[in-house]
Structure formats: structure tokens, C-alpha cells
Specification:
about 100 residues; mainly alpha; 2 helices
Length: about 100
């Protein structure tokens, strides 16, 4: 009877050690995945900002094309708009600091 109890105890200890190892492995994987999620969220935020900026630039270019019938006027309007966009970007970056 004592040997059966010892065998049962050994099996329980072995299984608990296996469970502990699996728990630690899953815990490490969870940490890695959480870091990956955070990284992807940050990248998504940056891409959304870039998308907004590109959409705004596109809108300005469309306006510039409709306002200026000749290529020279169009080029000049684009330069003015690009300058305005740079100024706005500088202001936004200063506000974010």
C-alpha cells in the first residue's frame, strides 16, 4: 500500500511539474504576444496618421487643379499648398511636444 501511495504521489508530482512548465511556457508566449499587439497598435496609429495626411494632401491637390487652369499656375498653387502643409505639420508637431 505504501508503494502504491508513493507511485501515486510521484505521478502527481510529475504531472504538476509538467503543468508548471506548460504554464511558464504559455506565460512567456502571452508576454511576447502582448508586446507584439502593442507594437502593431503603435504601427496602426502611425499608419492612420499618415493616411489622414495623404488624404489631406490629395484634397489640396484636387483643389489646386480645379483652381488653376494652366500648368504653371497649377505648379505654383501646389508649391503654396505644400508650404502651407509643412507649416501646419510644424505647428502640430510643436503642439504634440
Amino acid at each position: 500500500m505504501a508503494s502504491e501511495l508513493q507511485e501515486t504521489l510521484n505521478r502527481i508530482v510529475n504531472k504538476s511539474n509538467i503543468l508548471i512548465e506548460k504554464y511558464h511556457a504559455l506565460e512567456a508566449e502571452n508576454k511576447t504576444l502582448a508586446e507584439q499587439v502593442e507594437s502593431l497598435r503603435s504601427e496602426l496609429t502611425q499608419l492612420k496618421k499618415l493616411d489622414e495626411q495623404l488624404q489631406l494632401d490629395n484634397k489640396y491637390l484636387k483643389i489646386a487643379r480645379t483652381l488653376s487652369p494652366t500648368p504653371e499656375e497649377s505648379k505654383e498653387a501646389k508649391q503654396i499648398i505644400a508650404s502651407l502643409v509643412r507649416d501646419i505639420d510644424k505647428c502640430i508637431s510643436q503642439l504634440n511636444e
